[in-house]
Amino acid sequence: MLTLLVMMSLFLHVLSFIAIRLLLNKVNKLSQTESNYNQRVSEMEDLFATYLEEIKLENEKLEQAMNQTRIHEQTRPSSIISEIEPASIKKQAVKDESPKKGHIKNIPAIEPEKRKEYAPPTELPVEDTVEQSLQSKVYQLHDQGFSVEEIAKQLDCGKTEVDLMLKFKS
Asked: Where are the transmembrane segments (predicted)?
């Protein structure tokens, strides 16, 4: 009888060791999956951060270009006004319909002999064009075997942008 109890105890110990080993394997797989997930999340956060930095730089360049254009346009109107022929424009007094009654405003008027008759614009036949999106161009070039740098250079966009598109594709 004692041998039977020892055998049952041995069997139960082996069975519990197997169950513990299976649970340990599951815990290890879960922690490995979690670490892979965290690694992917951090990669995506890094990609987004670099992409945002790239966009900020592009926005700053655009802002500088727009400021230069504004400065250029502010100096321009005075030269345009001086080029207008004074003989072809007369000043005409017109009553302003603002709340100030009797206020007169000078508006330039074109001489009657220089006016043209109104002709409505004619509609020209327009052909519809279909353009491939940037995303589909990136996918197509990637399928053809181009690297991320080559695609970015060819499509005139950022490497990070191309990299993001390719990561989100799969």
From this structure: 6-24
Q: How many helices (H) and strands (E) does the chain have?
A: 4, 2
What is the predicted pLDDT for the residue at 30?
95
C-alpha 168 chain-centroid distance: 15
> Which residues fall within 8 angstroms of residue 56, CB to CB, at 6 or more apart?
none
pTM of the model: 0.35
Question: Quick one: pLDDT at residue 95?
Answer: 43
Instruction: Check pLDDT > 70 for residue 107.
Output: no
Residues 6+ apart with CB under 8 A from 85: none
155 token code pair: 């499509």
Residues with Cβ within 8 Å of 134's Cβ and at least 6 positions away in sequence, in order, are: 155, 157, 165
Torsion of CA 47, 51, 54, 55, to 10 degrees: -170
